[in-house]
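Reading a protein record of the kind used here takes only a little practice. The record below shows the convention in full:
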Amino acid sequence: MTARIVVAGQAEGPVVHATEGLSFWGGVDPATGIVIDAHHPLTGRCLTGTILMMPTSRGSCTGSGVLLELALNGRGPAALVFRGAEDILTLGALIAGRMFGRALPVLRLDAAEFDALSRTAHATIRDTHLQADGLHLPLSPPPMSAMQLTAQDHAMLQGPPAQKLAMEVICTMAAQQGATALIDVTQAHIDGCIYASPANLLFAEAMAEMGARVCVPTTMNAISVDRQNWQAQGVPPQFGGPASRLADAYVQMGARPSFTCAPYQLPTVPAQGEAVAWAESNAVIYANSVLGARTVKHPDFLDLMIALTGRAPLSGVYLSEERVARRILKVDVPPGADDAVWPLIGYVAGLRAPDRIPLLTGITVSPDADALKALCAAFGTTSAAPMLHIEGVTPEADQVDPNADIATITREDLAAAWRQFNAAPSHIDLVALGSPHFSLNECQALAALVAGRKTQVATIITCGHDTIAAAKANGTLAVLEASGAQVVPDLCWCSISEPVFPPHARTLMTNSGKYAHYAPGLSGRAVRFGSLADCVAAAVSGRAPDHLPAWLR
């Protein structure tokens, strides 16, 4: 047997085997290396110095920045071992070694090798072999690039320092993905502008100082502070300053300060079949699934590299054959279901298809854009797949492997997910809405529910600037603010921190499956979940429902 080196390096340490993928953003504390994802089997485990084995990663594209920070502060795993394709943590390890001299080896094993290593307690990785409790695996070198590059590609490889580095990293990632060519992209969306750790700032400012400049229209994800108001909000300068500088670095490199995690709400939304380079997991899944655009789930840092060159590896779901559903999920949608059903379906679909694109069937109620947003975002927390199909809804739902296997999502499965999200006490201190960012339609629906009522607990909605401007113009913003709700730009719930996040809040309620999953680890608070109407009722009364909704009983 010969295992494959993806990122070269040497390491030694105890073997830690994760039976399911882990998102490092929202799942691992970048300062300590401890797993903070409350829903993961390794929760509470410290990964520092370990040979960490996973089938693949999952979740947020920002995981590459978290891994880079762990590598730089000496709290990261000693090595990563995957059974399948993986880009997010691989890119973080590649940047750690190439830009900062912190080698963190990454290996890929086949199923038999992976299972054999998972049964060992300690492993040593050297340049040519892996040794572990009687197991000896020769290691093949990193894949050599056989890229068919254009004259312009070659020119960029000999170009200014930032562009040269970008093309080198793109070609290295392409080689490990098995790509033999690059593809032009029409636009990019940057996820690395979230201040996940000092490493994100170190990378961005280093690139800006090298003269990096985007060459395709580039939007930016939500950032970690309200850029114009963070000082007045009392955000500590030691956090607000670096977070603001991180955003400034990307603006300096030519990115548009859109600051939204829902770029599909912008006027620049791509058309079906258009090749783009988006990072941010929910945005990638929505773009591929709902819009029919094409983008791989690009890791943080690679998003910038592609924006600097306009070129991406021609691999993954850029290719038609990789967009095919290989699992059919038959969904039992309970009669009378409210809007909470969509994130529950997405969350369970990710659990049922953690490593492949599914086709969801049996959904007879047509979901609108906001329902699809909620479904896609929740799916991305539990699956590594970059897209899904919904029969009769999404544009490529006829693309199904004839050998696709079949699984089910029952009412009992949805109820189990609801209970998982509602284990906290019913007393609510905070209602958190806008993960991903609220649309104008969602703001209007919320305004209709709160009109003439007053919230009794903190109620915060995060939105993009374009949405806030439209809500102000049509009077929706005034209704929300009159109820006591606060509308916040620039931030999203996965990047919000105290004091914008109310320090006194102990239990929050949200209608987002994505945030219900990540909030315990990111905020340290208990969580309740429900429909938008349930969230409004909690905002007014300070209490969440104590029982399953009628449609789940």
Remarks:
- Residues 324-417 form one domain.
- The CA atoms of residues 26 and 522 lie 6 Å apart.
